[in-house]
TrEMBL record:
<dbReference type="InterPro" id="IPR036291">
    <property type="entry name" value="NAD(P)-bd_dom_sf"/>
</dbReference>
<protein>
    <submittedName>
        <fullName>L-lactate dehydrogenase A-like 6A</fullName>
    </submittedName>
</protein>
<feature type="domain" description="Lactate/malate dehydrogenase C-terminal">
    <location>
        <begin position="175"/>
        <end position="334"/>
    </location>
</feature>
<dbReference type="Pfam" id="PF00056">
    <property type="entry name" value="Ldh_1_N"/>
</dbReference>
<dbReference type="Pfam" id="PF02866">
    <property type="entry name" value="Ldh_1_C"/>
</dbReference>
<dbReference type="InterPro" id="IPR001557">
    <property type="entry name" value="L-lactate/malate_DH"/>
</dbReference>
<comment type="similarity">
    <text>Belongs to the LDH/MDH superfamily.</text>
</comment>
<dbReference type="GO" id="GO:0004459">
    <property type="term" value="F:L-lactate dehydrogenase (NAD+) activity"/>
</dbReference>
<dbReference type="InterPro" id="IPR022383">
    <property type="entry name" value="Lactate/malate_DH_C"/>
</dbReference>
<feature type="binding site">
    <location>
        <position position="125"/>
    </location>
    <ligand>
        <name>NAD(+)</name>
    </ligand>
</feature>
<keyword id="KW-0560">Oxidoreductase</keyword>
<feature type="binding site">
    <location>
        <begin position="39"/>
        <end position="44"/>
    </location>
    <ligand>
        <name>NAD(+)</name>
    </ligand>
</feature>
<dbReference type="InterPro" id="IPR001236">
    <property type="entry name" value="Lactate/malate_DH_N"/>
</dbReference>
<feature type="binding site">
    <location>
        <position position="64"/>
    </location>
    <ligand>
        <name>NAD(+)</name>
    </ligand>
</feature>
<dbReference type="InterPro" id="IPR015955">
    <property type="entry name" value="Lactate_DH/Glyco_Ohase_4_C"/>
</dbReference>
<keyword id="KW-0520">NAD</keyword>
<dbReference type="GO" id="GO:0006089">
    <property type="term" value="P:lactate metabolic process"/>
</dbReference>
Length: 348
């Protein structure tokens, strides 16, 4: 009896072709949401983790001149990607991999540390932006830029100039985290959940920021109706100290742990969520003001209550500030412009 010959596998045969009737290269790859994060330091990774936990990206790209660091961070997260919606996570130094990104988050740059000269940090970061922003925007011309790097107001203005993007598609994280901290400290003082508190800080992301005490409410109840001097020097309860705590937060955290990133990452992910899902939430973000309506007829970036959605900043909210808040707003706007004038004006 003849022994049947053993069938020789096709030369293209392998485990994948045997297991799968259709190969990965044939899978539909449409409707992917790509988010690019420029910078893979503490802040960039915190932003990436927060985005992935919200399952906003089917593809996340870390871009960093230190390519090995970017690849290592991407691989570290990828090992548990099965629990994050199985996104594709890439680390690279190649800006072309930002192609077709929905949002490009810019975290790259020197970080201000206690005692460091702020003008030096600004100049270093401007030099980085001159190289990074045009390269990223060349490959993602329809994206929204979200600027995290400090000083965020000045660098958002620089990014708008360098990218050539319309201003509504260049957004700074601004005082969003400041407002969250303000809300948190008020809730702590009252002994209630921060979710019950509505509170905002506007203008500069820095020492001249302005707390809007006239609009602080708990479930719609204005605290100013209870304590008319709230937040002022005449306030017997010293609520104004909470704003000082907000201003000192970054330096305090840096002195205690060497860096701060998680609050920034979570807030940045909330902005990305608003853009990707077009949720049109209202938060305080750094936005472009042409011929500033707040008392200084100059173009600046500063934080105001904004509606943000798929196209970036959709519109601003008009708020009836008190005369004191209006005066503080004008002073903050002037402080931003003075720094901008000596460092950024004329930048293209």
């Amino acid at each position: 009896m003849a022994v049947p010959k053993k069938k020789i596998p096709d030369s293209a045969w392998n485990t994948a072709t045997f297991l799968l009737t259709k190969q990965p290269e044939d899978f539909a790859d449409g409707h992917r949401v790509k988010i690019a994060i420029v910078g893979s330091g503490y802040t960039g990774v915190a932003v990436g983790i927060a985005i992935l936990f919200k399952r906003l990206a089917s593809e996340l790209v870390f871009i960093d001149m230190n390519e090995e660091l970017a690849k290592a961070e991407a691989e570290d997260i990828s090992h548990a990607a099965a629990f994050l919606g199985n996104p594709r996570i890439i680390g690279t130094k190649d800006c072309s991999l930002a192609r077709d990104a929905t949002v490009c988050v810019i975290t790259v740059g020197d970080k201000a540390t206690n005692g460091q000269d702020s003008s030096t940090v600004l100049q270093n970061n401007l030099n980085i932006f001159r190289e990074v922003i045009p390269n990223v925007c060349k490959y993602a011309p329809n994206s929204v830029l979200l600027i995290i790097t400090a000083p965020v107001d000045i660098l958002s203005y620089a990014a708008m100039k360098l990218s050539g993007f319309p201003p509504h598609r260049v957004v700074g994280l601004g005082t969003f985290l400041d407002s969250c901290r303000f809300q948190y400290f008020i809730a702590q003082k009252l002994g209630i959940s921060a979710k019950a508190v509505q509170a905002s800080i506007i203008c500069e992301n820095g020492p001249t920021s302005v707390p809007i005490w006239s609009a602080v409410t708990v479930m719609g109840i204005k605290l100013k109706d209870i304590n008319k001097d709230i937040g002022t020097k005449a306030d017997p309860e010293s609520w104004g100290e909470l704003h000082n705590k907000v201003i000192d937060c970054d330096s305090d955290l840096i002195s205690r742990k060497g860096y701060r990133c998680w609050g920034t990452g979570i807030c940045a992910a909330e902005v990305v969520d608003a853009i990707v899902r077009n949720t049109c939430i209202c938060i305080t973000l750094s936005t472009y003001l042409k011929g500033c309506r707040h008392g200084l007829e100059k173009d600046v970036y500063m934080s105001l209550p904004c509606i943000i959605g798929r196209n970036g900043i959709q519109t601003l909210l008009r708020h009836p500030y008190t005369p004191e808040e209006q005066e503080q707003t004008e002073a903050s706007c002037r402080a931003i412009y003075e720094t901008q004038k000596s460092n950024v004006n004329g930048l293209e």
